Amino acid sequence: MNAPASRPPIAPPLWLLAELTYRCPLHCAFCYNPVDYAQQRAELSTGEWIDVMRQARQLGTAQLGFSGGEPLLRDDLEELIGEGRRLGFYTNLITSGIGLTEPRIARMKERGLDHIQLSFQDSTREMNDFLSSTKTFDLKAKVARLIKRHDYPMVLNVVLHRFNLDHVDRIIDMALEMGVEYLELANTQYYGWGLVNRAQLMPTRKQLLWAEAVVNEYRARIGNRIRILFVVPDYFEERPKACMNGWGSVFFAVAPDGTALPCHAARSLPGIAFPNVTEHRLGEIWYGSGAFNRYRGDAWMKAPCSGCPERHKDFGGCRCQAYALTGDAENADPVCARSPRHGDVQAVVLQAQRMQAQGVQPIVFRSDANSRRLAAVEK
Ligand code: SF4
Ligand code: SF4
């Protein structure tokens, strides 16, 4: 018999992710921004962002991340950081590093920025520059030194896939040389541009097992010198991730145009009217909106999740992934071996490997032209 469905009390959001802009000088093949970003040019003003931050603090939000696109493209970033800090947030800048100059980092330090997460695409100049379709490796290396010089704890993020998984040892060596404190090795999540390029980016199980063994070997050898997080790609798992720790549970993202989202990929779900912070108060959105309540608790779940003893552990997995892979966001995330659609995930992996062997499909880099072309195809 199924356990009765439940809806726990709604706790305040802990995390606000301010996606300040979708503009970015890079063209990453795995970019998590929406594929149609080129049609979404509207951005909140400085005053509107400050108002969002104030409301979030009143709700009890403690962490504030500035991301994008590339948040450094906003000239008011330092002002927003200063205001965030003044309001009492722990502030975090998530950046490709492009545009982080000595005067800017000095101003950010002065305004109280707590933390910087820098992304690299690879340990080699060739692969870094290929994957971002820019010549940015040397610039990023310079920015890494700048971050250390300004005494920031260094968090390095490298998205992994079949083109760089075999370099994991060199990526860790690079992190050690840079004096990184925390290394996030996150295998590609197949949303946004990652989904467009899924067949090209999909690694083999052999690559993953090797990389994981290397990571464990380094962990044993270097101890606490660097904390290494290795996130395995969902498609190779038997259980899904507890996406966002549950829909509308701790995380609140605001897109550049003010659209409020329970996760940055949520706009890919059809039939949900996501509210905008220019029209509604944050508290109203968080506690009362149909969009944020849609997948809270377990009342929305269908079998097998509805009767599963693990449903409060993984919340049925990721709604965006369930939709992308099964066409129904209320299905169990098919990464789960209990899902009747689990075989589809394995088929995607095999299909990707067949396509790679045939070498037929080029990478589609994130660019305005590709964004417009893909958006037109989707219509
Ligand atoms: S993933 Fe790459 S292209 Fe996308 S926002 Fe980040 S740096 Fe820019
Ligand atoms: S059936 Fe649903 S709740 Fe159970 S483990 Fe799988 S995804 Fe999670």
TrEMBL record:
Gene Ontology terms, MF aspect: 4 iron, 4 sulfur cluster binding; cyclase activity; iron ion binding; oxidoreductase activity; S-adenosyl-L-methionine binding
**Name of protein:** PqqA peptide cyclase
Q: Which CDD domains match?
A: Radical_SAM, SPASM_PqqE
Q: List residues binding [4Fe-4S] cluster.
A: 24, 28, 31
* Family membership noted in the UniProt record: Belongs to the radical SAM superfamily. PqqE family.
Q: Which reaction does it catalyse?
A: [PQQ precursor protein] + S-adenosyl-L-methionine = E-Y cross-linked-[PQQ precursor protein] + 5'-deoxyadenosine + L-methionine + H(+)
Q: What is its EC number?
A: 1.21.98.4
- Lyase as UniProt keyword: no
What keywords tag this UniProt record? 4Fe-4S, Iron, Iron-sulfur, Metal-binding, Oxidoreductase, PQQ biosynthesis, S-adenosyl-L-methionine
Q: How does it assemble?
A: Interacts with PqqD. The interaction is necessary for activity of PqqE.
Comment on bound cofactor? Binds 1 [4Fe-4S] cluster. The cluster is coordinated with 3 cysteines and an exchangeable S-adenosyl-L-methionine.
Instruction: Extract the NCBIfam families matched here.
Output: PQQ_syn_pqqE, rSAM_more_4Fe4S
Q: What functional role does this protein have?
A: Catalyzes the cross-linking of a glutamate residue and a tyrosine residue in the PqqA protein as part of the biosynthesis of pyrroloquinoline quinone (PQQ).
According to its UniProt entry, one GO biological process term is:
pyrroloquinoline quinone biosynthetic process
- Pathway(s) served: Cofactor biosynthesis; pyrroloquinoline quinone biosynthesis
All copies of the Radical SAM core domain together span: 10-234
Q: According to its UniProt record, which cofactors does this protein need?
A: [4Fe-4S] cluster
Protein source organism: Pseudoduganella flava
Which InterPro entries does the UniProt record give?
4Fe4S-binding_SPASM_dom (IPR023885), Aldolase_TIM (IPR013785), Elp3/MiaA/NifB-like_rSAM (IPR006638), PQQ_synth_PqqE_bac (IPR011843), PqqE-like (IPR017200), Radical_SAM_PqqE_MftC-like (IPR050377), rSAM (IPR007197), rSAM_sf (IPR058240)
